[in-house]
Amino acid sequence: MQGTMDGFSYGMVTPAAAFLMACLGAALGLRCTTRSLRTERSFKAGWLALGATSIGSGIWTMHFIAMMGFSVDEVPIGYDVPITFASLAVAIVMVGIGIFIVGYQGVTPMAMVTGGTITGLGVATMHYLGMAGMRLRGQFEYDTLTVALSVVIAVVAATVALWAAVSIRGFLPSLGASVVMGVAVSGMHYTGMAALSVHLHHAVTGSAADSPPTAPLIPLLIGPGCFLLLAAVVVMFDPLMVMGDPDWTDPAGHGTHGIGRAPGIPVQRQVPRFGTYADPASFQSQRQHTPTSRDR
Q1: N vs C: which end of the chain shows fewer Cβ within 10 Å?
Q2: What is the mean pLDDT of residues 129-155?
Q3: 53-94 tens-digit pLDDT
């Protein structure tokens, strides 16, 4: 017996909320990835790990917010908690592998293709593993071509988003990259759902007593949702993340490190105008130099 599915039980509320969560996770994760490319090696892994966890939590939260609007008319739906959280772990690990490749190999074609492919596969794996955690008295079947299309969407868009995040500087390009990633995750999700059909078991009666154990989704979403808020606070209060590179960090090596200065002139210690990883005192404003009689 064919089940009657409805992916928009609450109208456009769940798709819109899911898309915003996907964009939030992507924005935080991609900004952390960009930040890792401009920091010391000792802090690089921390920023990349925060970015991977943000993206993974964002796409996982997006998926299950969207699933709150999914229903099958004839049967109640439950969720297997271990498999549901395993999909979160898989998303974080696979996305982490992808952005660690980009973070340590830099903006090279091979790194971008490899990192984007693994990140996109992580998005797709999270989706289908999360679907495998659903419990109802029936069986899921997928259209192979539509599933393949959903994976291609995830891989291509994830690659483009990573490239844009690390290649184009500025807040607006980063925001655009996060929107691309949000579109990728949402598009992949609903394309995958379009491939789904449900075949109910003949013994289904629709009685709640016969239904599988149900794990409500809202309590499961609290933890990853809180993490995303904390990650947002970390990003917002990092001056280099928000304001960009300070003027004193010259990629040619001038200024702080004394390379390129005229012979015989000692290195001048410069205090940056806003925070960076290099100097504990860098969160203080640069002091204005007051001319003295000696200077004159």
Answers
A1: C
A2: 90
A3: 988 888 889 998 998 888 888 788 888 888 988 999 999 999
**Amino acid at residue number 246:** P
Q: What are the helix and strand counts (H, E) for the chain?
A: 8, 6
What tokens does 201 get? Answer: 């078991």
Reported as a single tens digit per residue, the pLDDT across 270-279 is 444 444 444 4
Total-model pTM: 0.72
CA nearest to 223, candidates 57, 19, 27:
57
Give 233-239's long-range contacts (Cβ < 8 A, gap of 24+).
234/50, 235/28, 235/31, 235/32, 238/35, 238/275, 239/274, 239/275, 239/276, 239/283
- Cα gap 27→179, rounded to integer Å: 8
Looking at residue 252, its pLDDT comes to 42
CA distance 243 to 238: 9
Coil, strand, or helix at residue 254?
coil
